[in-house]
Amino acid sequence: MEALGLDRICVIIGRTRHKMVLAELQEAAKRGAKLIELRLDFLAKAVDFRRLLPFRNCPWICTLRRREDGGRWTGTEVERQTILRQAIVAGFDWVDLESDIADSIRRFGNVKRIVSYHNCQETPDNLNEIYEKMCQQDADIVKIAVTAKHPEDNLKTIELVRHAKKPTIAHCMGEMGIPSRFLSIKFGAPFMYAAFNKERGISPGLFSFDELKKYYAIDRIDSSTSVYGVAGDPVGHSLSPALHNQLFKHYGVNSMYLPFHIPRGEFNHTVRKWLTIPIEGYSVTIPHKEDAAQISNEADEVVKRTGVANTLIRHKNGYAASNTDYPGVRKCFEGPKPSMDDGTVREWNVCQALVLGAGGIAKIVVQTLSEMGVYVIVSSKTLDRADKLAKSVHGKAVDWPQRHRSNCDIVVNCTPIGMHPNVDESPIHASYLRPGMVVFDTVYNPQSTLLIKEANLRGCRVILGTELFIQQAALQFQAFTKIEPDLNLLRDIIRQAISPLAVQIQSEVINQQPYLSSSQNYTPNHKHTKENKSKKGPKTDDTE
Fold first, then answer.
1. Selection from 533, 530, 453, 466 nearest residue 493 by Cα
2. How many helices (H) and strands (E) in the chain?
């Protein structure tokens, strides 16, 4: 693979105007791009090679993708192949040719060839057969990009790279296919693709060049790189990859941390299948924490007591399960206690708490509050689950529509309500909140949820989900690496990851709105779940 002399990140540029293509070419060079794919199918007008090629300062790949292959080309096939031939003659270093036309466009000069196959609907059952035929074609690199419908589809493409007969790039598209993009590098793919501008919608599941540089040490990934990840459904909101990958980089650990989108009900089967990589450890989030406890053959006392695990570590006989949420929650409650109207502090053992949700994190919160002497009221959209959880600590359950009638000193949101992207939702009406009440939102993305903003405005004592996330993640990192990380380093990483500047970089869009901190004036937009039934949120009572 090294003989190809290519950088390990190929930056894709696709714009409708030549002017913007040139601007991004120059900016990409400034940011360190050393291999670029020009998506000529994005251009609204005829390609002007004489205008583009003078700006070439690294190897360029010419791609002109048809719509059925995920591209934007609207002309005839004859016209498309004519332009590809012109690009080859004009001086591109590489050309991407689909497998069905590669034999009709002959090799010319020193121009290298990528023979590709794209399937935007599925990962076909005859993928191996397709690959074998492509290896017989005149290709310097064989590229396969298919769509993941199941986590196991990732393994099909990874196996192609693992046992490649020619330099091979094979990955799955979509959020579920993200692991295959990185694991292909581990097993020998010459490079992986990244968007210069994610907002162009080039390919589902594609990371930006800035994201790869900041969060993933692509240049250091090799066959000995250990693999960890966060498993959930959904998982796109998770800041765990950003956090753990930067910690690996900071402490010089040859590991990478990936997002594993595993649908509900598929966790146990998928984790066993992924042992072929293997995955050394998982952070487990919604809705798999109870499944994680069941799949393990070793467990700590918290997991045995609650039946909930958020951490799996591989050992020779399977996985050991632990729960770092429990000490994290305990740490979070070391802060201010509730107070009465006159400012008198109330001790925990005379307080009542309303816990919203009955999933994995709710079980940990309820257990912790009970041990602190707090009387617990549980409210969930699934009353049976709420009742079972409340009875486990001699508390009581209330139906979700009745939650505002419960008198309490502490409110803890253990649902994903308010999580990105549904940031205008809150699990409780603002009128329920009062000064001196402790309000803890376990949602950490965004940091300042609508519930937290309204609690700040009403004089409540707030506990942020980011602090719980940091506490439990630090313990997970220590379990993964035996290194105790600096908590302030974790706070800095998370602060940067959720800052407006980081959001601008990730989205490539300049946001003109000022950042709203919890201390600034805020006019709440009351789109609470009770009144906002048209929005489809995650069907779960748990959050990470």
1. 466
2. 18, 20
Query: Tens digit of pLDDT for each residue in 387-434?
Result: 999 999 999 999 999 999 999 999 999 999 999 889 999 999 999 999
CA distance 293 to 411: 27
Residues 239 and 208: beta-carbon distance below 8 Å: no
Q: For residue range 97-120, list pLDDT tens digits in order.
A: 999 999 999 999 999 999 999 999
Q: Give SS3 for 311.
A: strand
The model's pTM: 0.86
Query: What distance lies between CA 365 and its chain's CA centroid?
Result: 25
Q: Residues with Cβ < 8 Å from 342, sequence gap 6 or more?
A: none
Determine the pLDDT at residue 3.
Answer: 56
Q: Enumerate residues 6+ apart whose C-beta is below 8 A from 114.
A: 61, 94, 95, 96, 97, 139, 140, 141, 142, 143, 169
Cα angle for residues 19, 24, 29 (degrees, 5° grid): 130
Of 230, 260, 245, residue with least CA distance to 324: 230
Burial status of residue 159 (CB atoms within 10 A of its CB: 0-12, 13-18, 19 or more)? middle
Q: Which two tokens mark 356?
A: 């919203």
Rounded CA-CA distance 240/259 in Å is 8
C-alpha 416/C-alpha 449 separation (Å) is: 11
Residue 446, preceding peptide bond in cis (omega within 30° of 0): yes
The mean per-residue pLDDT over the stretch 315-319 comes to 89
- Positions annotated as catalytic residues are 118, 143, 289, 325
pLDDT band at 504 (very low <50, low <70, confident <90, very high): very low
* CA–CA gap between residue 259 and residue 224 (Å, rounded): 19
CA dihedral over 367, 538, 517, 524, signed as positive or negative: negative
Asked if 446 contacts 542 with a C-beta cutoff of 8 angstroms, the reply is no
Cis before 514 (ω within 30): no
d(CA 361, CA 542): 6
**Calpha distance 267→233 (Å, rounded):** 10
Residue 492 CA to its chain's centroid (Å): 19
Go through the chain and tell me how many residues it has.
544
Strands 168-173 and 60-63: unpaired
Q: Distance (Å, rounded) from C-alpha 74 to C-alpha 86?
A: 18
Q: Are 451 and 418 in contact (CB under 8 A)?
A: yes
User: What's the token pair of residue 241?
Assistant: 């990859």
| CA 351/CA 408 separation, integer angstroms | 7
Contact 506, 236 (CB under 8 A): no
Other C-beta atoms lying within 10 Å of the C-beta of residue 33: 23
Q: Return d(Cα 52, Cα 18) in angstroms, integer.
A: 8
**CA 495 distance to own-chain centroid:** 17
Nearest Cα residue to 422 out of 539, 260, 263, 520: 539
Helix orientation angle between 465-481 and 487-498, rounded to the nearest 10 degrees: 120
Q: How high is the pLDDT of residue 45? A: 96
